[in-house]
Amino acid sequence: MGVRAKAFWKAFSTNLFDYETQKVVQINSFKIGFTYRLIQLGIVLYVVFWVMYYEKGYQAFDEAVSGVTAKLKGIAFSNRTKSNIGAIVWDAADYVIPPQQRSAFFVMTNLVTTSGQTLGTCEESHDVAGNDCKSDKDCEAGCIVMVGSGVQTGICVPSTRKANLSVCEIYGWCPTEHDVLPNDFIVANAPNFTVMLKNSIEFPQYHVKRLNILGWMDKHFLSTCRYNPNNEKLKYCPIFRLADIMEYTEAENKQIWNKGGMVSIHIEWNCNLDYNEEQCLPKYIFRRLDDFDNPVGKGWNFRFSHHYMEGNVRKRNLIKAYGIQFFITVYGKGGKFHLLTFSMNLGSGLALLGIATVLCDTIVLKITRKREVYRSARIDLVAQMQRKQKKAHNPRIRIRLNRGRTLRHESSFPVVSSST
To answer: Which residues cross the membrane (predicted)?
Structure first.
């Protein structure tokens, strides 16, 4: 092995097998020591109670895959001659529109009907903006008003619905809709309708499946129970009165039954799968989504029609339905002990203990009265080290002579001189 190789190996091995430690300075101060232990205690409590206990830092979590259906039941009777409806019995086939929705359902509580419409000419509704006129010149033949009911014929006719007003004649479905809601909602028994929610979830990672119809529920229980959050058993009942749902939203008012609205039904599954799967239970939360205090766009409504033939004449019944749109959302999270997750969270928590050292160093070196003393003991400045090294290699030697004189010499070996 050459000289250069030996020198390289010596330098490499010297650095490779060296072990270094940080400089330790012990400060006997009650205030600083108490602060240091207090910060450490706070970090330990945070890791144990918040990270590990509350946030389940020892578990790995899986989100649920879910499906939900809704089935409504209930009968209502109404007899309104002024609304052109007459005596009618309402069941789920009439007031659930459409029959099936994805994670949602609509319940009609009120309606405006325009019966027996036929294609022909008639006056436009006086509610259509920009449709009033004073002469035929104000009505353009063939003009389609997008918010209107048909095509203008170019003729101005007196309105039969509002005095001292003339409107443009149209070709379309006649007579046009007269949108006036009754004082009370027509489907008066709607608050007593019930809805049964069937929700299935699965945690694929842990092969766990759960159903909101629990194993201990029998036919008798399901036929008689109604959801009640204050009862130990009924708080898991999957059957809900619509009036109860509105009460639980804490925003109930009569107008929602008259003009409609939007309500959220949220099903939440927070499951600790380290325990028995039977303890994985649903929780129901209800919220009113629409802002009824907003003067614009109150309620919820839409139109649909039924077409039929009467003789050789094609007719339709136009229905403007008001009601409550229910949206169903499901969220599920299942956790189980996982060694890697636990180790990572524990290691991260222990690493936070270094914050105590950083904070106390800042207090000692920047805030305390003796910070300069602590700083000189804690930190070795380069200039100070250089002076120490120079003093060590080039000491000053004082030599006392016979006559009491002292000679100062800068070399390592003193030179003694004497007088003759």
So the answer is: 34-53, 346-365
The predicted-structure confidence for 382-392, as pLDDT tens digits, reads as follows 555 555 556 65
Closest by alpha carbon to 267, among 278, 280, 279?
280
Report the DSSP pairing between strands 104-123 and 313-337: antiparallel
Binding residues: 71-73, 194, 301-303, 320
Place of tokens 């997750």: 341
Q: Which residues, 6 or more positions from 159, have their beta carbon under 8 angstroms from its beta carbon? A: 123, 126, 165, 166, 167
Separation CA 170–CA 172 (nearest Å)? 6
3-state secondary structure of 390: helix
pLDDT tens for 48-96 read 999 999 888 899 999 999 999 999 999 988 876 655 667 788 888 888 9
Confidence category of residue 411, pLDDT binned at 50, 70, 90:
very low
CATH of the domain spanning 25-58+338-379:
1.10.287
Amino acid residing at 227: Y
pLDDT of 211 reads 95
Please state the φ and ψ torsions of residue 312, each to the nearest 5 degrees. -105, 15
* DSSP line for 119-179: EEEEEPPTTSTT-B-SSGGGS-TT-B-TTSSEEEEEEEEE-SSSTT-EEEEEEEEESPP--
Tokens standing for residue 336 = 């189980």
For 374, phi then psi, to 5°, come to -65, -35
User: Which residues make up each annotated binding site for ATP?
Assistant: 71-73, 194, 301-303, 320
Asked if the bond preceding 175 is cis, omega within 30° of 0, the reply is yes
What's at 410, amino acid-wise? E
- The more confident residue out of 417 and 7 is 7
Q: What are phi and psi of 223, to 5 degrees?
A: -80, -15
- Strand, helix or coil at 245? helix
Question: So where are the chain's domains?
Answer: 25-58+338-379, 63-124+176-337, 385-420
CATH numeric code, 63-124+176-337: 2.60.490.10
CB–CB of 122/149 below 8 Å?
A: no
